[in-house]
Amino acid sequence: MKLLRYVSLVSLLAILSIVTAEEEELYSDKYDYIDPMEIVNNDRLRDQYYNCFMNTGPCVTPDAIYFKEHFPEAVVTKCKKCTEIQKTNFEKLAIWYNENRPDEWTALIKKFMEDAKKQNS
């Protein structure tokens, strides 16, 4: 009986540690230094990133490739795995696009939601 309790306790602790580890896993902060406002305020850069994310143009920088890979999940999970800087930057982008290019923002979010559903299928 004691062995069964011990095994149950060890199993429970193992499961909790896995769940906790998954919750604490954040996206890499490798590109946290990038200022999204510099990108959105530059027509050429903004269009380059947007076209990359929408699959209508190439992704020409490593950070664009990285963001494109993780952005759909971040949208769906409301940035659950984002660093604090990433959360702030995401909010800045959302505000800027909603104020300046709402149709593009809506299209981008729609695409990312579809991409996230495909990844989870």
Report the sheet with the most strands, covering strand number, pairing sense and barrel closure. none
Mean pLDDT: 83
Structural shape:
globular
Distance between the termini: 42 Å
> Given the structure, what is the number of helices?
6
Q: Quaternary state, please?
A: single chain
Helix content: over 70%
Indicate the structural class.
Answer: mainly alpha
What Rg, in angstroms, do the CA atoms define?
A: 19 Å
The stretches of 5 or more residues where confidence is low (pLDDT under 50) are 3-21
The tally of beta strands, per DSSP, is: 0
H-E order: HHHHHH
Sheet-strand content, in percent, reads: under 5%
Protein name: Ejaculatory bulb-specific protein 3-like
Organism: Polistes dominula (European paper wasp)
Keywords: Signal
Signal peptide: 1-21
What does this structure look like?
There is one protein chain. With 121 residues, this protein is an all-alpha fold. It is 74% helix and 0% strand. It has six helices and no strands. The chain has helices at residues 2-24, 36-40, 43-53, 62-76, 84-100, 102-120. Helix 4 packs across helix 6 and helix 5 (84-100) crosses helix 6. The model is unreliable at 3-21 (pLDDT under 50). This is Ejaculatory bulb-specific protein 3-like.
